[in-house]
Amino acid sequence: MIDLLQSQLLDPFRIGLLIALVATMLRNAPVSGIIAPLAVGVVFVAVIIPVAMQGGFDATRVGVGIVANLIILAVIMGLWAGVRRLRG
């Protein structure tokens, strides 16, 4: 289970999708808000990667994927908050 989490945390495709999710959320935040798009995006990325790349739905991979996505998302949002703070 730890190996699965580690591999998902280091997956560049997953990280790229989540960065794109945050960029889209920031652009559309006045219209759609923040929480709902991020929540739906986290679940979408967690489901679509195992289904598309491993060829089927696996509840374990999806569950660990949601946890990995939340960790990656927290790092991305923390970095974004730091960038905003440095900009002034």
Topology (elements, then pairings):
Blueprint lengths: L1 H8 L2 H21 L2 H19 L5 H29 L1
Helix pairs in contact: 1-4, 2-3, 2-4, 3-4
Count of domains: 1
Helix-strand category = mainly alpha
Radius of gyration: 14 Å
Number of helices: 4
Which sequence of SSEs, written as H and E, runs from N to C? HHHH
Q: Name the helicity range.
A: over 70%
How is the biggest beta sheet arranged?
none
Total strand segments: 0
Low-confidence stretches: none
The gross shape turns out to be globular
Mean pLDDT reading: 94
% residues in beta strands: under 5%
C-alpha termini separation: 41 Å
Can you offer a commentary on this structure?
It is a single chain. The chain is globular. It has one domain. Helix 1 (about 1-10) crosses helix 4 and helix 2 runs antiparallel to helix 3. It is built from 4 helices and no strands. It has helices spanning about 1-10, 10-30, 35-55, 60-85. With about 90 residues, it is an all-alpha fold. The model has no long low-confidence stretch (mean pLDDT about 95).
